[in-house]
Amino acid sequence: MRARILGMTIAVLALAGTAWAAENIPAAAVTEADQIWTTRCALCHGAGGKGDGPAAAPLNPKPRDMTDKKWQASVDDKHIELVIVKGGQAANLSPMMAANPDLEAKPEVVKALCAKVRSLGGK
Ligand code: HEC
Fold first, then answer.
1. What total of structural domains would you count in the chain?
2. Which residues contact ligand 1 via a Cβ below 6 A?
3. Which of 13, 31, 49, 116 could serve as 120's disulfide partner, Cβ 3.0–4.6 Å?
4. Angle at CA 79, nearest 5°, toward 109 and 64?
């Protein structure tokens, strides 16, 4: 029951587009997001988000440097979350940025991944 209320609260806040502080994300979602970042995202983006992962070399365009504060300021969380769930093509970016359809049912993990991407920019 508590989990359901928490889930509903998350959904309502997400719908309202409320700015999401990392500490409001359930710890389990943060842990899962960290694992996903390490096992999936870092392959291309690099552990520190510099775009220097082991699978990045042959990519064109390459994944950007996510530590770039200018880029961080130029995109909103909605963009980041859209690209994560629907893939690069959904935002006119490279299709090499694959969709992650398994995350569609896990909005709090997507939020945590977005917070992870933000943290790379020093936030
Ligand atoms: C197969 C390599 C690959 C993997 C794996 C990958 N990405 Fe990407 N990603 C890319 C590329 C390439 C781009 C840049 C596309 C472009 O600029 O056209 C990108 C773009 C992005 C962007 C948008 C950057 C922008 O310019 O707005 C975000 C956010 C992102 N990735 C997050 C993630 C996350 C989170 C994961 C793990 C769930 C992930 N990516 C996994 C290759 C990858």
1. 1
2. 36, 40-41, 43-45, 55, 59, 61, 63-64, 75, 80, 83-84, 88, 93-94, 96-98, 100, 113, 117
3. 49
4. 95
Question: In the structure encoding, which two tokens stand for residue 79, read together?
Answer: 């963009």
Average of per-residue pLDDT across 73-92: 98
Q: 94 CA to middle of ligand 1, Å?
A: 8
- CA–CA separation, 44 vs 97, rounded Å? 9
Q: How far is the CA of 102 from the centre of ligand 1 (A)?
A: 16
Tokens matching residue 58: 């042959």
Q: How confident is the model at residue 122 (pLDDT cuts 50, 70, 90)?
A: confident
Residues above pLDDT 90, as percent of the chain: 79
Q: Domain span at residue 68?
A: 2-120
DSSP code at position 39 = I
27 alpha carbon – ligand 1 mean position (Å): 24
Supply the CATH number for residue 70's domain: 1.10.760
